[in-house]
């Protein structure tokens, strides 16, 4: 029992945290309750019920269906409902009149039945049409409103009265919904979109810094199995996960922008036709920067790694370029957040200078990146770290090779040690190593091995990728190239933010600087 | 008038193409029409109407709301509706009985009003809770069913009768919906998920091949402006866009898998608890491969490019590795499509061998990638192709520099020509070039210039990224590294497909090969 009360406490704590994280959630819930109560009062009191009859329940349904989280989404849904109901109402009345005019007891239901089938098929087909998908709800409304009006009208005999009563009821529900949603602590989609974009800027900047920091910190000794990291679980990299969320945020931004377009000017977004779609564009350019961060992250967790002391050799340049770039991204985010427009040329120049310094450093020391200069690779432990099992085998192997004293590592024109045919003197030790690896494969307690064990005969000899030493060294070149490409894309990011600032008429500040 | 009839013809053609692309769309539309007609007949005939009264219209509403594209989604929605209606019905009856028992003309409406407010607030809050988001529709149903039953019950005096009639009506609607949806040309979410995953495999393979082909074909002469290509428009790269769609398909796969879980065993997916969630996992690993393709595509359209003849030097190795990798991805897709399980070790070995050959080629010729060997860069035109305007300026500039005969390009330790302070003798021609660039900037008819013109004083001197020659050459190293990383990730893709094949009990084939 005490256990149960404890879990209840925890549950309460979770709910409390959830509310504290965004107090709008509680406000939204209370608003819905209030709106439903308001409409129900209409029915609990005698008068409206006497006028509209049972049709008044449609006002409750309208509130329950129309009340959305943001003002814009509510307007959008309300528009769908209003237009849908109106169209369906007009159509139903016309068809019902035609059917009633015929007066025939077979023709009448036939017309009505055929029209119901037709409306059902046509609306269902239209809502699949790509450009009409956003109005999916409207088509649903048309379908059921049409059916309800025409059928109950047919039964009750007065389709026009039914239609009008229902439309009034829906109008009352819509009116209450809009009133409560807009007047009591409105939650604006525009505001949400604005904050979401700023959050994305910060996520990308944080992820870049985190990625670079880990790349330089990491001495390669504690790499987890790749199989466990190829999927989305990087518990020690919160910024990376936020960056990933940024990559998947395109639909969220679009939905919010679509809702925001329905909102009247409000708060900080005071001028008409505020360029909400420009936010989506900036988000897209930012996403293209985030792709580079993902690629950097891929190199960081790649199985082919440059040796630690080679990475550390360029530490200061990489760090400087990264910090300047992250700083610029963060400044852009802050400017959008504060809706000011500061000239970016200084910080853009700064990041370009530091990137050029990085390029120059790579340029100067590019001999380090080719295998003919092995002053670095000699001083480190073996570089290949592909499949965990194989990499240890290779380290045995290369140890054997270097004991053997063959000059394979010195001359870049010789084939690498993996090629057994050209290293006949090493063949035995190679096979020994392979056998050792095979044993290890069967004792290794990873998921891989389980698959191998279950997998039948073919699984046992699934080959693994191998990397050459020189390619490993070139991984540093890849990393810096991606960083430089990130910086190159910042130009476009600055451009798009400038365009947004122009169109949204952000305040100019520090013009003369 | 002839113009109008022509556009109608075109419209008709579009609709026809839309139907032909997926005939399921037409079937779905006709099915909805049929289901609505079926339910309406219940009302057009006298008998059911006499039993249930106006509550029978709820069966129409149920059909219109419950009828989804796939069987699984219909079941899921039906479950939400059924449980929601049931819960709301029970709750409403209990509260109504309590309120009626009080019998007081003030207490009664107060209890009802308070309960309505509470239900509205609680359901709205719960549907925001992350793990309950999939049941959003269920909470909506609870809210409006509760309000409807309790309010109309209060007015009509018999909440239990109202609740029961409504539940029967809903059950009739749900029954018709399920019957029509399952028995007449059912559209299975599982089938759709299966095909979607296979499509994703093909998209990634196609995009990889397309990207590599363009990288090797492209002689750098017809690069479009980067600003127009940073966004999603690559009209001449259909496979790339499909690959991008793959990146954004995670939510689609998850939705389909969620729906598929509701479906009974059917067709090819005959055994119970078919591992639909495994499809989502394979999709995620595939997406990680697609990230590398995106990075490759980024290098392809990067502003920093390796010279054409350097790229072409490794053509055969790159092409072979790429073709083998694409072949493997396509084979995996085909195996999933045919639900067979063939051993992949041979083709995996093949792609590893060709990747090793590529690595070895890079290894052998790694001296080409460093700036101290300029036998390649001399024979080509200048490599920097950043912002279009600046790159032509730089080509002027480097031309001037080479005319000037300074040894800057030969020695990698000297600062590059862009740095004016260290190349005082070139200062004049540099400034000349800058002026020329400035003029060009104002006459260039791109979007950039417009922004510059509007952009006020600070826009005019927005700096642009510059790249050093050696970094440009290293871009090839980046490209090959990314390709190798793609191949490394294929190991995990093969693993995950094997796991899927195990869990879904695909037919084993070619076991002995």
Describe this structure in words.
With 513 residues, chain A is mainly alpha-helical. The first copy, chain A, contains 22 helices and 2 strands. The first copy, chain A, has helices at residues 2-21, 24-44, 46-52, 57-66, 71-102, 107-126, 136-156, 159-183, 189-217, 226-229, 238-247, 250-260, 276-300, 308-313, 315-338, 345-364, 375-379, 388-404, 427-443, 447-454, 456-459, 469-503; strands at 340-341, 507-508. Chain A has a two-stranded parallel sheet.
What does the secondary structure layout of this molecule look like, with pairings?
Two copies of one chain form a homodimer.
Chain A: H1 2-21, H2 24-44, H3 46-52, H4 57-66, H5 71-102, H6 107-126, H7 136-156, H8 159-183, H9 189-217, H10 226-229, H11 238-247, H12 250-260, H13 276-300, H14 308-313, H15 315-338, E1 340-341, H16 345-364, H17 375-379, H18 388-404, H19 427-443, H20 447-454, H21 456-459, H22 469-503, E2 507-508
Parallel strand pairs in A: 1-2
Helix pairs in contact in A: 2-4, 2-8, 4-8, 5-6, 5-7, 5-8, 5-12, 6-7, 7-8, 9-11, 9-12, 9-13, 9-15, 11-13, 12-13, 13-22, 15-16, 15-22, 16-22, 18-19
What distinguishing features does this structure have?
homodimer, 2 strands, 22 helices, 513 residues, two-stranded parallel ribbon, mainly alpha, 72% helix
- Give the N-terminus to C-terminus distance of chain A in angstroms: 68 Å
Q: Main beta sheet of chain A: strand number and arrangement?
A: 2 strands, parallel
Q: What oligomeric assembly is this protein in? A: homodimer
Mean pLDDT of chain A: 74
Largest protein interface, residues of each chain: A-B, 140 and 138 residues
Percent helix range of chain A? over 70%
Helix vs. strand class of chain A: mainly alpha
Strand content bin of chain A: under 5%
């Amino acid at each position: 029992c005490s256990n149960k009360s404890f879990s209840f406490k925890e549950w309460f704590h979770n709910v409390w945290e959830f509310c504290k994280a965004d107090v709008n959630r509680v406000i939204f819930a209370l608003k819905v309750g209030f709106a439903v109560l308001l409409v129900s009062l209409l029915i609990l009191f005698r008068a409206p019920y006497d006028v509209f009859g049972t049709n008044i329940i449609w006002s409750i349904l309208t509130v329950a269906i129309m009340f959305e989280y943001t003002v814009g989404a509510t307007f959008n849904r309300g528009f769908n409902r209003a237009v849908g109901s109106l169209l369906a109402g007009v159509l139903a009345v016309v068809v019902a009149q035609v059917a009633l005019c015929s007066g025939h007891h077979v023709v009448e239901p036939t017309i009505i039945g055929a029209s119901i089938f037709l409306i059902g098929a046509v609306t269902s087909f239209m809502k699949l049409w790509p450009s009409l998908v956003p109005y999916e709800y409207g088509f649903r409304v048309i379908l059921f409103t049409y059916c309800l009006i025409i059928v109950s009208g047919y039964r009750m005999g007065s389709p026009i009265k039914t239609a009008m009563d229902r439309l009034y009821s829906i109008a009352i529900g819509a009116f209450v919904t809009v009133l409560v949603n807009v007047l009591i602590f409105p939650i604006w989609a525009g505001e949400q979109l604005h904050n979401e974009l700023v959050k994305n800027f910060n996520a990308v900047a944080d992820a870049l810094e985190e990625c670079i920091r880990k790349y330089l910190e990491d001495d390669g000794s504690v790499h987890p199995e790749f199989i466990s990291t190829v999927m989305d679980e990087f518990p020690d990299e919160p910024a990376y996960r936020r960056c990933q969320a940024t990559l998947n945020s395109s639909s969220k931004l679009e939905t919010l922008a679509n809702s925001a377009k329905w909102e009247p000017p409000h708060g900080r977004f005071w001028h008409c036709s505020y360029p909400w779609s420009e936010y989506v564009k900036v988000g897209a350019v930012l996403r293209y920067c985030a792709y580079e961060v993902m690629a950097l992250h891929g190199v960081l967790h790649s199985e082919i790694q440059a040796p630690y002391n080679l990475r550390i050799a360029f530490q200061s340049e990489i760090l400087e370029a990264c910090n300047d770039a992250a700083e610029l991204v963060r400044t852009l985010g802050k400017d959008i957040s504060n809706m000011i427009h500061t000239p970016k040329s200084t910080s853009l120049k700064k990041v370009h200078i530091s990137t050029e310094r990085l390029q120059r450093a790579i340029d100067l020391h590019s001999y380090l990146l080719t295998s003919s200069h092995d002053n670095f690779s000699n001083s480190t432990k073996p570089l290949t770290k592909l499949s965990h099992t194989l990499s240890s085998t290779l380290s045995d192997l290369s140890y054997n090779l270097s004991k053997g004293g063959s000059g394979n590592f010195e001359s870049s024109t010789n084939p690498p040690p993996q090629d057994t045919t050209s290293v006949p003197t090493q063949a035995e030790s190679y096979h020994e190593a392979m056998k050792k690896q095979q044993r290890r494969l069967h004792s290794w307690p990873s998921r891989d091995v389980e698959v191998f064990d279950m997998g039948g005969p073919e699984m046992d000899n699934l080959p693994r990728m191998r990397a050459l030493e020189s390619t490993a060294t070139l991984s540093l070149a890849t990393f810096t190239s991606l960083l430089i490409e990130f910086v190159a894309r910042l130009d476009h990011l600055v451009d798009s933010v400038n365009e947004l600032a122009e169109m949204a008429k952000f305040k100019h500040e520090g013009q003369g600087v």
